[in-house]
Amino acid sequence: MSALEKFGVEIFTQRNIFERIAVDKPFRPDNPAFIFIKSGTIKLRQHFSDLEVSANMFMVTDPQTIYEVVSVSDDFQSRMVSYKREFISALSLKFNRLITYRYFRQQMNKGVPFPENEMEVVWKSVNFLKYILDSETEMLYKKEMVEHLFSVFCYQMAGIISKEDNNSMNQMSRQEEIVFVFLTNVAEHHLTERTVEFYAEKQSITTRHLSAVVKSITGKSASQIIALIVINEAKVLLNSSTKPVSEISSILGFSDQYSFSHFFKKHLEVSPSQYRNQFEN
Fold it and tell me: Global pTM?
């Protein structure tokens, strides 16, 4: 049984991370995670933008987002703290969980820089938690130790994120908030709803206003982003499962295999089968 299943948290090094994730192959994290970069650089693609995260930065990944590793430097050194949502919500932490979640969510899919001395302290906390999790020595209160060490880590991150929020993030602008809510809604409803009208109505704004704001913030139209999210979902299903294309069409909410193949080819210039085959060679 993995540490994640047994204790609700697991820590991966850069070696573990790349045993699971191949470059140029889209993946969806099973659980939320913090990724810390001690040295080197990693470039990730997510939905509509590329992101570079380098030394003394962290990012928060989320199971609603599909990522693709574009490149990794040779000196890349990292820790990934992966946890089950129910584990963090079961801990009796004093800070307001909702506020912390908003901070965490606001930082999602952004690399956040923080001072080297703070990184050093977090790095040591994470490594000690990993040491306890990996230890084969019988420990009477191992579960409680893991919970407390993970709580320490959460307090560290809440403090860093709150400070970052106060220093530079302040409040999201109204436009950023519209885009943020739009992306959250698309992540939730894209299997059944693909019209810009639906997402505009969710925020009680006009389709024209939503389209203009999304374009100004992301550089892509709302309909392009909806399509991208569906395409990324299709890529993950095609290269991480053996399900037939007809079944994947159905999972993604297409009326038949033909309409899915037409949609896929329009955006990627290869058929779903051709795309799948390139990973089997």
Answer: 0.70
